[in-house]
Amino acid sequence: ADTVKLGLVAELSGAGAPAGTNWRDGAKLAVAEVNAAGGILGKKVEMPEYDTQTDPQVSRALVQKAIDEGVIAIIGTVYSGSTMVNMLVAKQNSIPQFVGSEAPAIVEKGNPFVYRTSSGAQKGVPALTPYFKDTLKAKKVGVAWVNNEFGKGGRNVFIAEMKKAGIDVVVDAASEQAQTDYAADVAKIKSANPDAVFVYMNQEESARFLIEAKKQALPMPLVGEVTLTEAKVIELAGNAADGAIAHVGVTATATEVPGIAAFAKSFEDTFKRKPTHDAIKGYVGVWATKYVTDKVGKVDGEAFAKTMHGLCLKAADHPKILLDTCWDDRGEMSRPSFMVQVKGGSPVVIGTVPAN
Amino acid sequence: MLELRNIHGGYGKITILNGVSFAIPKPSITTVIGPNGAGKSTVFKAIFGLLNIQSGQVLLEGQDVTRQSPRQMIGHGVTYVPQGRNVVPQLSVYHNLELGGITAQDQVKLRKRIDAVMDQFPMLREFRDRKAIELSGGQQKQLEVARALLLDPKLILIDEPSIGLSPNLVQEVFRTLLRLRDQGVSVLMVEQNAKAALAMSDYGLVLELGQTRMHERADRLLADPRVGQLFLGGHVAPSAQGATSPHAG
Amino acid sequence: MSDPVLSIRNIEKSFGGIRAVRGVSFDVHKGEVLGLIGPNGSGKSTLFNCILGQLAPDAGEVSVNGRSVAGMRASQMNRLGVGRTFQQLSVFPKMSVLDNIILAGQEHHGTMLSRLFGAPDAGLTGEAERMIAFFRLTHLRDELAGSLSYGQQKLVDAAMAFMAGPSLVLLDEPAGGVNLTMLSHFKERLSAYNAEHGTTFVVIEHNMEFVMSLCTRIIVLAEGAVIAEGSPDEIRANQTVIDAYLGG
Amino acid sequence: MRGLSVRDVWRSVAIALLLVAAILLPIGQKNYIIYVLTSWLIFTIAAMGLNLTLGYAGQISLAQASFMAIGAYVTALLTLAGWHWLAALPPALIISFVVGLILGYPALRVKGHFLAFVTLAFNTLVFLVLRNEDWLTGGTYGLSGMPRPDFGLFSTDKHLPFYYFTLGITVIAALALWGIVRSPWGRAFKALRENPVRAESLGVDTRRVTLLAFAIGSVYGGLAGALITPLVQFIEPGSFGLAHSLRILLMVVVGGAGYFFGPFIGAAVVILLPEVLRFTEGYYLIIYSALVIVMLVFVPSGLIGVWGRLKAKVWPKQQVRTDMAEGAGLQ
Amino acid sequence: MSQFLQVFLSGLATGAVYALVAIGFTLVWQAAQTVNFAQGEFVMVPAFFVLIGMHWLGLSFWVALLFGFAVSIVVLGLLFKKLIVEPILPHGGITLIIATMALGILLKESAKEFYGAEAQPFPAMFPGDQIDVFGAAVSLRDLLNLVISLGIVILLTLFLNRTRTGRCMQATAQNPGVAEILGVDVKRMVLYTFLINAALAALASFLITPVYLAKFSNGETLGLIAFIAAIVGGFNQIRGALVGGLLIGVLDNLTATYVTAQYRAALPLVLLIVIILVRPQGIMGTSEGRAV
Ligand SMILES: Nc1ncnc2c1ncn2[C@@H]1O[C@H](COP(=O)(O)OP(=O)(O)OP(=O)(O)O)[C@@H](O)[C@H]1O
Ligand SMILES: Nc1ncnc2c1ncn2[C@@H]1O[C@H](COP(=O)(O)OP(=O)(O)OP(=O)(O)O)[C@@H](O)[C@H]1O
Ligand SMILES: [Mg+2]
Ligand SMILES: [Mg+2]
């Protein structure tokens, strides 16, 4: 055939739809660019979409379906619960898979075919430890997290990190996905009065949390990982987002990086909205597939896996990878990251964290 | 007053009425009798627009009212008291009555009439604010009968009013119907309590197997031995106990 | 006279402010056909419901064959041999007439297990068909009970009360809406059944012809209390009853 | 005894044909299609159970997915501990039965929407326990790697044998249910649905019947769960949330509640239709839900009623009731 | 103490919103004896109509609000009644319930497909100024929600019980056959019900979306909680919806603050199950009367 297929398996409906659709749109943009740049191995790229409905069981079936239909790589899924299951299927069939999930367990299962598009919580969250310890000089902290597999993963890593760093976790506030009233969570944190709070939730939950925190005048710094300072959250939370701090792997606001600025612009032109972190991940996933497949020179999952492990792509040679990016022998990814704070309604980079 | 011409109709695909024709003059009381399942209630539903009429015509004072909706029939001055229980369960007795006059224009007059029926059935006044569902079977029936009298009807269709009513109240209802007839109202009634009903009626109508069998002056029907045997509680000859034709005579 | 089959003592039942039944007591003896009459709302149906466990009486005692049935559920009473009908049509509308009748008998045949693994009709088709034939419903055997006419449903309802071979039957207005010819047939059969099996009946009815010719004794309720008791002739002549109930 | 009527013969032929179709259908299909067909069978079993509880006995339950969860987790934990699937099945079914009995108790006190609420709440509680008690259930990460049963010569590791294995179980489950619904129990269930007060007065112990309706329905849920475990080889709480109970309810109603074959059709529509529509990508759920609404508008008693409608269209015969056509008594 | 007051008052404010949605459930129940499982989506959608008015048609906020209200009445009231309720209602509650579930999916997916999966900010009708109540922060908006819910409960109760039209609506729901033979315009009564319901849903939408944000999936949780609130309150009493809503809002917050956050969704449910088993007609409901 003169086309190659990538299988976009993602959360296009259900609770994960915001993440999934951004992931998809980022990937779509990349596919268009890849095709404009001559495709993969000189063949045109097609990307059929498979909606998991945010249901791991469905996602597993759909990865199977995509493979049945002859895709050379799987792009997705974003929710860790889904990825944990469906990566088994890709593995059985030796199909490379770029995932947007950040749960630590994913790269711990010894699956050679799964690769992250952002670093996992066990890398991202620890990057924050020095910030809590040295910059904020916190003695006691709180954690507010959403009780799903994403939130729980981050929260577990955070608690372990704080223990290592000798910082007390004085309040541990779990909230439900799609919760609307954060009065209880904020009130609890307020009365425990930690020096800083780690906030680990999805977008609009983060926004609602910030709004309530402002209402109750929560005095301490709120620190998050990626989501808390995303453009969407700021748009939703309005001035309640001011002062929020986050550690961000790649951010569309890091416009001093030329690739990111170009990506953000063409995403906004195409989809009439600002790209999110998930959009960048999907974008990177497709481009990485292209770069690596072209490097291998043929469609071969085993060879792909071999090439991936220990691979570093320099932004200078591979501009669409946006930042210098490396994958280790488990598929974990590392690249430089940033500390960002919301000031006057927009995120400002307040520091750079080197790749770890 | 009312005329049915060769009505055919039934439920879904099933035909129950196989050509019912009769006419009742104004003002008069006509009692319909017939075995269980003969189609008496079905005829009433056909008149009142509640039945799928396959063919035939219903004429009211010469005007074709076939397949008109119940609301339209009420507009023409027809009211209907169906068989069984028909109250709005969670509304009070008073509000049930008031619903009986929902199409009335003149509220003051309606209130007066409600007062009048309450005089006639004192139970209604006593239980004015109770939910209809809490009433006893006969009390609910009183409520229904009273409700049908509120609108100044030209024609009353009343399906077995005696079910559940105590004997003195049955007499009261019959007296009311007679009074109404004298005021110019026509009554079409189904009654199993046939002797008493025919005795006060002007005409009798025998319905069987979905067809009109006899239509006569009530006193003649009462005197007819065949009618007596079949419908007024006479003995059924043993030979007539056929399984497929239960009413053979 | 033998011990009473049914004995009720000082039954009381109020709904909110309404005292529907006020201390009613009477006995019913084996083989009796007792009529229970009274104006609308005098508490007859409520009394039945209290006897049969559909309502819990506020006070008083009911015993069947000398055994107190306080707190017993209607199904348990039925297994003791007490059958009943309701004033309101009470069939299973989306089941065939035959199924209605079989259902009425099946719980008296075999055990839970035999009913699961045994014959689908619990061996009752024959008996049910005889019952159906008796009520002249054979042509309607496979129709849905809900599509029958009022009188026909009333007959199905009555038939169901007999399927379990009860020793005591409480009938609430069995005659309402039933064609007179059918009714006299029913009445004869009821008397015959009573004579043959010694079955006891308590009948609520507003059809005086039916009550007077069928019952051996009549109790009259008014406003929840017994106001008269006696043979049909005595009741017919009782002025209180005429004023309260029978009318002039 | 009544002999076999023409209708019975037709029905047997139709069932045999369907069975043959079910056997031939997956041959030569890709893995994914076989997987979907297998889930169709499994959900049919779950829907059959709910059909008994809701369709026959008239007790609304929004908790069928939680019984699937119970069946699935029990089988998963036991097979992960090394038990054979066949050995893990009885405990799974027994626990479902007992929990079903317990869930039936509220139904003795409340009806209709209150019962809907209690069962809904139960479903949510089961979900929360599965999610929060991660020492046992693996929490949000779920359990994975459960083996598929191996019967010596017949291993179900591949998708096709597993499909046949599931088909066999479905047939057995359907036969058992068929036995129940046409036994006196089935009649008692319907009586409970139609007129519980009258049923009680006829000696039907409606309490017991209600509890049984829940318990048996739950066993079918448990069985479906026990099959999901080896099919997906991964389970997590989210797959047994309220939405899934509603989906099973949808299957029952779309197929035709109270009709024996309703669940087969309903599960087919709910599981297979979206697959057929997937080519429309973003719009498939929109089209799917619109189709469901259209279906309910035109065949409100479920798709199983379509046959009767078609027949009436093809042979538009006016029927005269036998008793109405008979000769006259009076003339 | 101020912590208790804070979560209590916030719970009341959230509960008022639940109540507003729950009223829709009771209303539809009282007037059509069915449950609209798309009720949550009915509250999600009007906000999107307003956003469409603002962003696609370029209307100003207040005009867009009117536009959204009108479109909601037509789509969620008129069309819903004509195309779905009317054909299915005669075939019984469960079928209609299922149809409304499907409708919920339809609305949700349409909103997502045509407006995107991400939450959108939504302007508030009233200022969010805060007042300090004994150390607890309460916004003016919260108070207004409470007042409006209360007002609607009173108005609707009066309408249903004190006006002839209201009683006709009840009669239609309780016994449509009888209503019809008495000459009640049954179709129109059903229409009124659904128009009022749509209006309430739109109002609820405009009140809560500034806080909840406009998102396609908002209806899921909201609908469910409101359903629970309606049941707890008794379903056959409009005022029950208010009590049920407030109760759930407060219980949820108190559980999360003082008992367990992980099981915050569970404790209210357990409590409510107990309430219902003890008082099967709900807290405010009245029993439906004689069964035999
Ligand atoms: N809803 C229905 N669906 C189908 N068949 C029906 C329906 N209602 C009545 N029938 C049938 O139509 C026939 C006539 O019924 P109808 O109610 O008119 O009888 P009736 O003469 O009023 O009898 P009754 O004296 O018992 O009231 C009966 O055989 C009955 O079984
Ligand atoms: N569930 C209830 N709630 C309130 N009142 C009730 C209830 N049931 C019965 N009543 C009242 O109790 C009284 C007796 O009712 P019951 O049904 O026993 O009368 P009845 O003698 O059977 O009358 P009928 O001859 O009309 O059937 C009536 O006044 C009735 O309104
Ligand atoms: Mg009739
Ligand atoms: Mg009575």
Please characterize this protein's 3D structure.
The complex is a heteropentamer of chains A (356), B (249), C (248), D (331) and E (292). Chain A is of the alpha/beta class. Chain A contains twelve helices and 16 strands. Chain A is 41% helix and 21% strand. The termini of chain A are far apart. In chain A, 63% of the residues are buried. The mean pLDDT of chain C is 91. In chain C, 37% of the residues lie in helices and 25% in strands. Chain C has two domains: 1-81 and 166-248, P-loop containing nucleotide triphosphate hydrolases (Rossmann fold, 3-Layer(aba) Sandwich), CATH 3.40.50; 93-165, no CATH class. Chain E is mainly alpha-helical. Chain E has eleven helices and two strands, in the order H-H-H-H-E-E-H-H-H-H-H-H-H. Chain E is globular. Chain B binds chain D through residues 10, 13-16, 18, 37, 39, 54, 206, 208-211, 213-214, 226, 230, 244-249, and chain D through 312, 317-331. Strand 2 of chain B pairs parallel with strand 5 of chain D, so a sheet runs across the interface. Bound molecules: adenosine-5'-triphosphate (2 copies) and magnesium ion (2 copies). One magnesium ion binds at residues 44-45, 87 of chain C.
Shape of chain C: globular
Mean pLDDT of chain C: 91
Terminal CA distance of chain C: 36 Å
Q: What portion of residues of chain B is helical? A: 25-40%
Globally, the shape of chain B reads globular
Low-confidence blocks of residues of chain C:
none
Oligomer: heteropentamer
Tally of individual helices of chain C? 10
Distance between the termini of chain B: 33 Å
The H/E string of chain C reads EEEHEEHEHHHHEHEHEEHH
Along the chain, the helix and strand elements of chain B come as: EEEHEEHEHHHHEHEHEEHH
What binds here, in terms of ligands, is:
adenosine-5'-triphosphate, magnesium ion
Question: TL;DR?
Answer:
Chain D is mainly α and 331 residues long. Chain D has helices spanning 6-24, 31-56, 64-80, 85-109, 112-132, 134-137, 159-182, 184-194, 196-201, 206-232, 242-255, 262-277, 284-298, 306-314, 322-325; strands spanning 143-144, 150-151, 154-155, 234-235, 319-320.
Which structural traits does this protein have?
heteropentamer, C: 248 residues, Rossmann fold, 2 domains, four-stranded antiparallel sheet, D: 331 residues, mainly alpha, two-stranded antiparallel sheet, disordered C terminus, binds adenosine-5'-triphosphate, binds magnesium ion, ATP hydrolysis activity (chain B), branched-chain amino acid transmembrane transporter activity (chain B), transport (chain B), Amino acid/amide ABC transporter ATP-binding protein 2 (HAAT family) (chain B)
